[in-house]
Structures are given as C-alpha cells and as structure tokens.
From TrEMBL:
GO terms classed as biological process: rRNA 5'-end processing
Superkingdom field: Bacteria
UniProt GO molecular function: hydrolase activity, acting on ester bonds; nuclease activity
Record InterPro entries: RNaseH-like_sf, YqgF, YqgF/RNaseH-like_dom, YqgF/RNaseH-like_dom_sf
Domain YqgF/RNase H-like: 2-100
Pfam family of the protein (one): RuvX
Gene giving rise to this polypeptide: ruvX
Compartmental location: Cytoplasm
Signal peptide start and end residues: none
Keywords: Cytoplasm, Hydrolase, Nuclease, Ribosome biogenesis
Name of the protein described by the UniProt record: Putative pre-16S rRNA nuclease
Gene Ontology CC annotation, any one: cytosol
EC number: 3.1.-.-
C-alpha cells in the first residue's frame, strides 16, 4: 500500500505528516518553508509512493471560509497541477492548532519548545491525518 500525506498549509510554513505504508499510523514528517513545498514534495514522491494528499481547510466556527481559505485553495490548485496522479482531499482543520498546542503541553514539552511554530504545524498536520484515518474506517 501507499502512504497518505497530510498538509497543514500556511503562508510562511507548512507542516507535513504521513502514514505508514499500511495506513495505520499517522506521524509527523517535517515542516518546510511554504515556498519550498513543491520541490520538497517532488523529492519525497520520487522516493515514496503516496496514494492521496489530505489538506486542512480553514474554516470559521460557523463553517464559513477564513482569510486563509484562498491560500489553501491556491495550494490545492498547484498540488493538482504538479501531481495530477495524486488525489487531493480537503478536510476541516478547525481547532487543530489548538489541539496541537495542547498535545505539546500534555506531553510535557517545555515552554521554549512549545514556542516552535514549525512543530505546532507538524503536529497539526498529524492531527488532520489522524482524523482523516479515523473517519475513513
């Protein structure tokens, strides 16, 4: 089986997470500067088989689009253009950053480590992927 990748897209940084080849476990992969996302994915996809890309879709509490929604829509367009063989699916990402920060606290990370925004993005991508896997079953 191939992996599934999740993306927590941001204007400056993008968090990435992937499943194992059996698609049982979601793990944080890395955080990349957003302007380096496509070159990074090209290298990654050359080395690993990826079945689908899951991207977090930002929404307000009422379900409407946020100021970040157009950025994610543009990213989806670019992903589909560069990787037409890999389906891109959008999933609701409400609360993932808060959940990621809380998981950092719960795991005992020091305050200085919790200020690492890249780590928050990577954990957010992992949460998006875990939720996708749970809902897929």
């Amino acid at each position: 089986m191939a992996r599934v990748m999740a993306i927590d897209y941001g204007k400056k940084r993008t968090g990435l997470a992937v499943t194992d080849p059996l698609q049982l476990i979601a793990s944080g992969l890395t955080t990349v500067p957003t302007h380096e996302l496509i070159p990074y994915l090209k290298k990654y996809f050359a080395a690993e088989e990826v079945e689908a890309i899951i991207i977090g879709e930002p929404k307000n509490l009422d379900g409407n689009a946020t100021h970040a929604t157009p950025l994610v829509e543009e990213c989806v367009r670019i992903l589909r253009k560069n990787f037409p063989q890999v389906p891109v699916k959008k999933v609701d990402e409400r609360f993932t950053s808060k959940m990621a920060f809380q998981s950092m606290i719960d795991s005992g990370l020091k305050k200085k480590d919790r200020q690492n925004k890249g780590l928050v993005d990577e954990i957010s991508a992992t949460i998006i992927l875990q939720e996708y896997l749970q809902n897929k079953i």
